[in-house]
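Ticket reopened. Same input as before:
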Amino acid sequence: MIFVPSWMGPLSAGKHHAMATKASRSTARIMMAPAVVLLLGWMLVPLIMTLYFSFKRYLPLRGDSLERGLEWVGFTNYSRFISSSSFWPSIQTTLIMVGGVLLITVVFGIVLAMLLDQPMWGQGFVRILVIAPFFVMPTVSALVWKNMLMDPVNGIFAHLWRFFGAEPVAWLQDASLGSIIALVSWQWLPFATLILLTATQSLDTEQLEAAEMDGAPVLKRFWYIVLPHLARAITIVILIQTIFLLSVFAEIFVTTGGAFGTRTLTYLIFQRVVDSQNIGLGSAGGVYAIILANIVAIFLMRIVGKNLDE
Amino acid sequence: MSLKSTLCAATALSLITAGGAFADNLTIATVNNGDMIRMQGLTDDFTAKTGHTVEWVTLEENVLRQRVTTDISTKGGAFDIMTIGMYETPIWGANGWLVSLDDLSAEYNAADILPAMAGGLSHDGTLFAAPFYGESSMVMYRTDLMAAAGLEMPDAPSWSFIAKAARAMTDRDAEINGICLRGKAGWGEGGAFITAMSNSFGARWFDEDWNAQFDTREWSDTLNFYKNMMTDAGPAGYATNGFNENLSLFQQGKCGMWIDATVAASFVTNPKDSTVADKVSFTLAPDNGLGVRSNWLWAWALAIPAGSQKEAAAKQFIEWATGTGYIELVAANEGWANVPPGARTSLYENPNYKSVPFAQMTLDSILSADPNNSTVDPSPYVGVQFAAIPEFAGIATEVSQEFSAAYAGQQTIAEALEKAQAITNEAMEAAGYR
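Engineering reply: fixed in the latest deploy. New output:
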């Protein structure tokens, strides 16, 4: 028989517990390491390469290559990219596109969320249909919009216009940026609707009923009860969408190829790297894009943080 | 005993590997033009003759350029054969990115390739790409509409005659446009057309010190003339029309005239595809009395990227596709009018081909284009509808986008030219020319 003092019990148990945690923690770390290393590599390698190239003269068509060594040019690429006559117009185009898509998706997202929240026949089916565009690949939806809807000769819109005796519109030429905003909005509306619908469903109906009994009209109920309730969801929609919208590329590549005033910052970088084969200049543009995205992200994160604190 | 069986096994193994290397699968990047589509349909003949199989990657012109340029400059190795043109070949050849084609077999007869084509596809006298077809540009016009307008097409028309005829032939109610021209953004699309046209107006891309010349009156005259003519007599939405779009319009009988690649002649005169096949005639591209016509010179050619593992098989394919045998194969299957034109001297000496209505005009157009002397005022670059410097593709793509936006009425021609001037000078500074 071994005497164990009563105070040893909890102590030893505690020690044992602490050791188990330590062991499981390190096991967890080892288990997670490959994923973390992979993710870090995934992120860091391109980032470091972009930074590296942005300080180099790298014109592959002039015979520059990594094997031969690249010439260090300091901040030349950065100053050249920003002083280019295409830079500010491209920033403007980017902001108009992102802003336009956000406006459309949030406004129509709220409307659709309200409508889909109403009890109706075939609700599940309608919801699936509304969400469907989100699952279509950007390239595919761009091709469908370009060839089946917006084509000035064979598109559905052209037929519709002719049916009413109007001259068909060459959408991607005469209203190019608007067309791209419409197309991207169509893709992102389901996302906004989905998030806003879940938020709507968590709204306390008793509050609304009470307001209704007190004689508050529909618009006021929406403005003072529903909208404040959705505020947080709207911020999240704006935050996530902005980050993805800044990098919209396939839709522009497929429809206009950057012509007719649709050259966004992302597309300008693509043109610098692929069309002009100036990898240094394009990389400097890439670094600007990273900075821009981070400014937007920090800005929005703060708003979200404030919203969540309330 | 064991040595013997080892040797046997080794021999068997090497035979198997040799057999495996013999039957290669070639990946070929090409452009979605009619002649290439036809070649894809005849691939079985190549497989039957050599045992090699072929996988086609068919892309629209602008996309093809981006894909193959990226692949070759990063040594991606995605393709065994690339379809490239007169612009890429000398630049890539100079960089050592292409396999020399000087050692093709005697029966291929490389000396038969038209000198204008061989010259444009070589660097320092070494052939780096074999022409699949060669082209210039010319006027294709509808004889019935021309007669109805009470006009007669001269042998060598001027731009003012073309504009007059275009306006006279236009009948908006009958959906007939007097003239269809490329306006699509992209240096090889609308960019190529407007550059060739500007040559005849006395314009040039660069002066002898590589300064952009878009602030000159010649460029402004070119664009204004083009846009006025297209507004009065061109199809709706011409700012997005390239080669294929105009071909389709012409085949449907919606164009009175079309100034474009000479290869289009076989498509517009083919009764299977064209509703106006028997009402088409051809003449030289117009000029402005300055001594330079507005026709270009181009070849779509096949080249092998350096470092390819399947060089031998790729060379076999190039000999098959660009040799005289292929021309005879197409002639037997589809008639002499549909063979790939403009690449070989012997084709134009062939009596069967001489009876084809556009054969002589194609040859005359090709022979009248001089890449070394393409502008009225002296210029520092080689090339008719392009300047053979690595930066040109990037610059001209952006410039042609500004032009297309002006055609579409989104900006004025003066604004487009101002932007073009800035884009070009910036890029030339970045490349160290200025």
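DSSP finds 13 helices and two strands in chain A. Confidence is low (pLDDT under 50) at residues 1-15 of chain A. Please confirm and we'll close it.
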